[in-house]
Each structure stands twice: as C-alpha cells, then as structure tokens.
Amino acid sequence: MSDVIRLHFDVAGDNLTEAGAAAGSVKKVLHQLGVDPAVIRRVAVAMYEGEINMVIHADGGTADVEITPEYIKVVLTDSGPGIKDIDLAMTAGYSTATKRVREMGFGAGMGLPNMRSYSDEMNITSEVGVGTTVEILIYTGKDRSPVNMAAEA
Amino acid sequence: MVLSQVKEILNAQVIAGEQFIGCEVCTACGSDLMSDVLAFVKEQGILLTGLVNAQVVRTAEMMDIKVIVFVRGKVPNDEMVRMAIQKEMVLMSTGFPMYIACGKLYNAGLIPGE
Ligand SMILES: Nc1ncnc2c1ncn2[C@@H]1O[C@H](COP(=O)(O)OP(=O)(O)OP(=O)(O)O)[C@@H](O)[C@H]1O
Ligand SMILES: [Mg+2]
C-alpha cells in the first residue's frame, strides 16, 4: 500500500498556455522515481493529449494519477459536452476542433488514437450533456500486457 | 552533429539554452502540427517549426525533445522562453523558411526522427 502514489490535478478550461502542466508535473515525479524514460514518455504524451482534449473540447476537468511499481493509471474526468459516438471520435483524423485550436497546432484528430497507441489499456465512458471520463493504464516495464508486446514484435 | 554547427548552418540566433550549445544531436523533424509530432516522432532530436505558442514547448517537453528551432524568423514569446529555460531546452530562431532549414540540416547529415 505504501508504495502507491496518488496525484490530483485541476485542469483549467480554455487556457491553452497552462494545458499540459499536469502532465509535465507527472513526468517530473516519474523521473524522480527512476521510471524507464520510454515509459515516462508514453505516460506523458497520453496524459498530455487527454489534458489538451479537456481544455479544448470540455472546458477543463480533473486528472487523477495513480503510480505503483507495476503500473501508472491516469483518469481524466470532465463535465463537458460528452462524446456522442466514441468509435467515430477514436477514428484517426476525426476532429471537431475550432479554427483557433487548429491554428495552435492541434485538431488533427490524432489525440485519442494516439492515447490508445501509447497506453496498454484505455477506456472511455461518456454521456452527452454530462461529461467524459478517459482512463489510461500503462505498465511500468516487466509487466507489459501481452497485447502490447505482440503489437511491438 | 553539435548544436553549434546547427546554429551556424541555419545562421540562427540562440534565444535560450546557450549553455547547451556543445550538445550533440542526431535527428530532426519539421512540423507545424503538434498532433503529428506527438503521434509519429520516435527519436528525440530537434523540432523545427513555424508555430509559436506555449504548446510547442509543452509538446517538446512531453517528447523529450530538447531543441526547438523556429523558422522564417519567428521568435518565441517571453512565456515560452521562461518555460524552455526551466525545462533546460534550447530555443533557436532562423530566418530560413521551413523547407530550406530542413534541407540544410538534412544535407549536413541529420537524419529524420520519425
Ligand atoms: N473530453 C472530451 N469531451 C468532448 N469531446 C471530446 C473530448 N475528447 C475528444 N472529444 C471529441 O473527439 C474528437 C477526437 O478527439 P482527438 O483527441 O482524437 O482529436 P482532436 O482533439 O480533435 O485533435 P488532436 O488531438 O489531434 O489535436 C474531438 O474532436 C472531439 O469532438
Ligand atoms: Mg485531442
């Protein structure tokens, strides 16, 4: 029990300067814990994409991170508009991002597919008008999921 | 390739991280689409971009990219410089447009980071 670290972050909506600060903090903590840099990068990118999504699509939310010796779990929760068709949202290239967001270098519809490919397990639950929760699980090394190992081979 | 050579080839101005100018880089990628950088870049070398906002620095941070070159004379704002210094990154600005800046580095032996 004692080697579980839990971190909580509030992610402000409509602040594209601060977006990514939570992922940056987690990255620093994982680095201090001596986690494999390749694993850190996967966690950082997946969480960053999730954070950006909450900022640009959902007026902010919260990020809860659980770090154990075996895995890192990130749960991103927002009370935004929700996602009507999750399969469609997961399709590479699908995006409802505004022109302003696109001008900032985002909105290619790559975030969710990217989060999936960087994580070992990903789960999205969403209800229109209520909000969205995205859960990402990444194993720290020795316990890589068989699915992912097969994909890498 | 040593960063000082990158600076010379691109006739660039170093805006942050001058103390790292002796560091070695092997790869580079050019993109204005941060989504693509996050999805496809594999090696952590230089990011060349024409995009100027804080998320360029954040994207580099997440990808462990330590060097950002802004093309076509673009210069990062104070907030970006502050973030880069804190994250021990190097920021440079070159007058060359993207295509030429990438071409010059490619010719000089930097390989794609994808
Ligand atoms: N938290 C969220 N709340 C509501 N809708 C979302 C949320 N996250 C994603 N979406 C919807 O799913 C679509 C696809 O998301 P994805 O992250 O793949 O692409 P994007 O954010 O539009 O662009 P990119 O991630 O490449 O910058 C979004 O355009 C948006 O319609
Ligand atoms: Mg996205």
What is the CATH first-level class name of chain B?
Alpha Beta
> Could you say which structural class the secondary elements and strand pairing of chain B correspond to?
alpha/beta
Oligomer description: heterodimer
Q: By CATH's scheme, which homologous superfamily of chain B applies?
A: HprK N-terminal domain-like
pLDDT < 50 stretches of chain A = none
In the CATH scheme, the class of chain A would be Alpha Beta
Estimate the strand proportion of chain B.
Answer: 15-25%
Rg of chain A: 15 Å
Instruction: Give the strand line-up of the largest sheet of chain B.
Output: 1-5-4-3-2-6
Shape of chain A: globular
Run of helices and strands of chain B: HEEHEHEHEHE
Taking all Cα atoms into account, the compactness measure Rg of chain B is 12 Å
Please indicate the percent range of residues of chain A in DSSP E strands (runs of 2 or more): 25-35%
In the CATH classification, which architecture of chain A applies? 2-Layer Sandwich
The CATH topology of chain B is given as Udp-n-acetylmuramoylalanyl-d-glutamate--2,6- Diaminopimelate Ligase, Chain: A, domain 1
N- and C-termini, Cα separation of chain A: 34 Å
Query: How many domains comprise the coordinates of chain A?
Result: 1
Description:
The complex is a heterodimer of chains A (153) and B (114). Chain A is built from 6 helices and 5 strands. In chain A, helix 1 runs antiparallel to helix 2 (37-58) and helix 2 packs antiparallel against helix 5 (111-118). Helices cover 39% and strands 26% of the residues of chain A. Chain A starts with a strand and ends with a helix. Chain B starts with a helix and ends with a strand. Chain B contains 5 helices and 6 strands, in the order H-E-E-H-E-H-E-H-E-H-E. A 6-stranded mixed sheet of chain B has the order 1-5-4-3-2-6, sandwiched between helices. Chain B is globular and about 30 Å long. Chain B has a single domain (3-112), classed as 3-Layer(aba) Sandwich (Udp-n-acetylmuramoylalanyl-d-glutamate--2,6- Diaminopimelate Ligase, Chain: A, domain 1). Chain B is an alpha/beta fold. The chains are: A alpha+beta (153), B alpha/beta (114). The A-B interface holds A 16-17, 19-20, 23-24, 27, 37, 41, 44-45, 48-49, 52, 104-111, 113-114, 117 and B 32-36, 38-39, 49, 51, 53-56, 58-59, 61-64, 79. The complex binds adenosine-5'-triphosphate and magnesium ion (MG).
